[in-house]
Amino acid sequence: MGHRTRWGAIAASAVLALGLTACGGADNDDEGGGGDGASAGAPAKAPGFDGTTIKLATLSAQSGPVAVIGNPLVAGNKTWFDRLNAEGGVAGKYKVELVNEDNRYEADTTVQRYNRVKNDVTAVLQVLGTAPTLALLPQLRRDKIVAGPASLDGFWVKEPNLLPIGAPYEFEAANGLAHYIEAEGKDKTFCTFTQDDVYGEAALRGVDAEAKQAGIQVATRQKFKLADKDVTGQVQRLRRAGCDAVSLAATPTDAATIWGTAARLKFAPRWIAQAPAWTGAFAKSPLAPYLQQTTWVVAEGTQWGDESVPGMKQMIADQKQYAPKQQPDIYFQYGYNQGRAFTALLEKAVEKGDLSRDGLLAALNELGEVDYQGLIAPYTYGADGDRTPSRSNAIFSIDPKAPGGLKLEAKDVTSPAAQEIEFQAAP
Amino acid sequence: MLRRGGPSSTMHRRRADAVRLWRTPWSRFGLGLLVLAWILVPQVVTDDFWLTVLNYAGISAIAALGLNLLTGYTGQISLGHAFFLGIGAYAAAEVTRSSDLPILLWLPLATLLAGLVGAAIGPFALRLRGHYLVIVTLGLVFIGEHLFRNLKDVTGGNSGTSVAATPSVGSLDFADLDLLGQAYSRQQGWFWLIWALVALTALLAKNIVRTRPGRAIQAIRDRDLAAEVVGIEVGRHKIWVFAISSAFAGAAGALYGSYQEFVSPDEWTLFLSIQYIAIIIVGGIGTIFGTILGALFIGALPSIIEEYSHSIPGVQTGPGDDGFISVFALNQAIFGVLIVAFLLLEPRGLAAIWLRIKTYFRTWPFRY
Amino acid sequence: MSEFVELAFAGLALGARYALVALGFVVIFRATGVINFAQGGLLVVGAYLTYAFLEGPGLPFALAVVAAMACAAALGAGVERVALRPLVGRPVYAAIMVTVGLLFVLEQTVTTIWGPDNKTLGDPWGLDTVEAGGVVMAVKDLWTLGLAAAALAAFFAFLRWSTLGVAMRATAADPEAALAQGISAGRITAISWAIAAALATVAGVTFAAGSDALVPSLGTVALVAFPAMILGGMDSPGGAVVGGLVIGLVQSLTAGYQQDVLPWAGENVSTVMPFVVMILILLVRPYGLFGTREVRRI
């Protein structure tokens, strides 16, 4: 009987509460707009910029299995900005401060951590992981925040909110294969062995583009699943097909299983491995002699410590000063290059006198070519995601005595097929 | 002490009293407080980070309520819950891909589909008892992941799919709430939506367990043979509970997808299933309120630990820091320790601790 | 033909490792009625202990494995005493979930002590192979089969002839009658855990040997041993061995021939085949191939 009145009372108190605290509504989401119209003068205060210091977030795996990648990435970020700050900062006067968040390589954690820092930072310097970046994209677009993906997926090329660097996985695969064809000719049997995920699919697109360009056939395409402990079946099929060259997209744990199986089955093609398959630990493992004979790693730039390249010379000097314990590591180098890209972006924004979110997006559209001083090939950032990624890769052979186990085989390898690849927008 | 004829929380004179939802003025007062908290929290906690934590926790609560019906009330352990979340998420993505359906359509559709899949799988899975069921439902997670990766037209394959399902009914869009001239953020809107749905689901679950079929499944849990003897059709009951539990998971999955706007096959893993089991263990097996407490606890704990990791000695808070254990390792280890500790020390979970506190104050100054 | 033999051999070697893990499951299940999810954790701990004994004091490989087995066994018995003994008499799910919790604790302990990066175990087998009749076989796989066979033989001999083994069988058959005979159930349970941990160590070493990487997440392979255990029947040690070998063979042969036979089934069906086979067999035989049929009396 009395039920209706009681529910009514609850409802009424609800409405009252809503009215009373309406002032608690969102106001922190709209800070992204405008820079007070300050043009070309000193940039006005904006989220993450208090007039003297610019804050950038990193959402990287600092713990868990992927920390092996995330930690050197962040160390690379930090080394770049430590050096920059010592020289005065962005445009010589604005110091940069990093806000490091651990995304644990998980999509939902990334979204949570992003929400924690988004109102305190100017941009997101680094997001590690393909799935986490994809999960974050809708919010980045809504919040008009620029972010730097720490993965080389082709998806990022066309995305106006992202500032990718380097040659995408597609180019790695295409350039690696192109280098092999140039060295050994077309009269060979070409195969692929890829991880069954986004990264493997990107590599396959690259191989396909190169195969079309060069007019060759891919004899067999094998795939494996992450953490599969038995790949005998797939390796046998590669061997049966008589593969002379196999494009490999994997990560180190699986690469160890694959190369071990191949070595035992006396299958020794030319492995053209994508950069993420490599880790310095291989140079000391029982696999080293086999890898020395069979494997190329397709990465970027030049050999660690190659002082003839100006960017490398500076990076080594910075590493010795600001990260003395750092081992040779491609991810450290990647993080360092991200620092350079964002510095270019921030300087453009400062030049235009607007460090707000809109200002950064506008600056990204006008950024143009960024030169990485030979660490990676130049990348051109045009308006509205019209971009030309770094086109060339470097091919490394395995040498246990070289830093990180990689010895430069060929520099600036650029396949014409790389121009043919159409990048898809993110799903 | 007792008011003659009035309802009491400690003693029931009539059957109807025992099954009533809000028995005493105090429990009705508590309900009012919860409603008030629901309204106020997003306005007090305007920090988007804590709101996202609460929102994800709310979504887990919905899924865990379903699992508690199956595990807590019927005694059937399933490790396959993540699979049904996946079904719900992809269903929501699929039905909103070409048409802009309101939440009143895509949410029930996704729920229904996951329930149907559960009803189809149930008869096979529930033929098996105890341990065999645990392992078979574990297989479901792996087979499901295989399907999600390979049915590219629906799931987008490895690269995942964006989810266009929006939380809107007509002009009311919870992601972009505008009430009485006051604009609310996406996280605030979602908080109200998700936690209203949590309340709805909890009410539904509560109503299921206090009806005749609900008492039947508890009889099955306590002793399936005895239940059969008193005329309960064990098989049929197990199957409908499995279907309903899957449907709850489907609803949670659809919300997860819509809230995150993107899902990929990397998310529906065994770990997710284990997390739901942990929620109901920590919260209290076979309690509705406990499940929600558990979801909040398990959902917010990693963030709380991380927030205060700077003041925990020996914890490494960033790359290159000193300290022997990383925050992640600490979190995972604590997650494991919590499961162990609750089962060893307080098998009835947070709900029992809550009850003890309540009893303490109610019987104060007397102790027993 | 030689390809088939090669594939079958690799499958059997994989299956032998699954069998070692599955046998650990069965040993614990027979003694306590609990599925031990922490077996994967014990496997990782065993492999890392071997690594530690090789790297630290520089023990010879065989000695390092034995030392690791002993340490793991002690750890297994200790874990049982601390975390599982108090749960005797409580619902079975409680014990199962405790082992799930332990899995997390063990894996993170390993990560904290040895770090998350790839290690090389440092076993003497490396990439060596032998060739017989045109079939290439890895020395590592031969040793795996040999070690598995030795471990299994030792276990069965122990169960058949030793007093403790007889006591274990008696407890499995009828706990109360065994108790009445003066057999300490607690002692049997602790010993079962120790045996399971030692078996897991052997399995872990064979999984991480050769060129394969030793990583803290190695324990996930134990999940594939569940189908092996279920397939054989949960309380049958012989069934665990058969189940392990069947699962290993099925997985390997599927990887080898799926593209010819079942191209429509999607990529990497081989990794889900263990579960598919398990479910198919359970549909026909709900208690596995050799499991004891549960009798329900009214």
Automatic annotation (TrEMBL), chain A:
Residues 53-399 form the Leucine-binding protein domain. Keywords: Signal. Residues 1-24 form the signal peptide. SUPFAM superfamilies: Periplasmic binding protein-like I (SSF53822). PANTHER family: BLR6548 PROTEIN. Belongs to the leucine-binding protein family. This is ABC transporter substrate-binding protein.
UniProtKB/TrEMBL annotation, chain C:
The chain crosses the membrane at residues 6-27, 34-54, 60-79, 91-114, 142-159, 188-207, 213-231, 238-257, 269-290. It holds the Pfam family BPD_transp_2. InterPro entries: ABC_transp_permease, BCAA_transport_permease. It is found in: Cell membrane. It is a multi-pass membrane protein. Signal peptide: none annotated. Keywords: Amino-acid transport, Cell membrane, Membrane, Transmembrane, Transmembrane helix, Transport. The keyword RNA-binding does not apply. Belongs to the binding-protein-dependent transport system permease family. LivHM subfamily. This is Branched-chain amino acid ABC transporter permease.
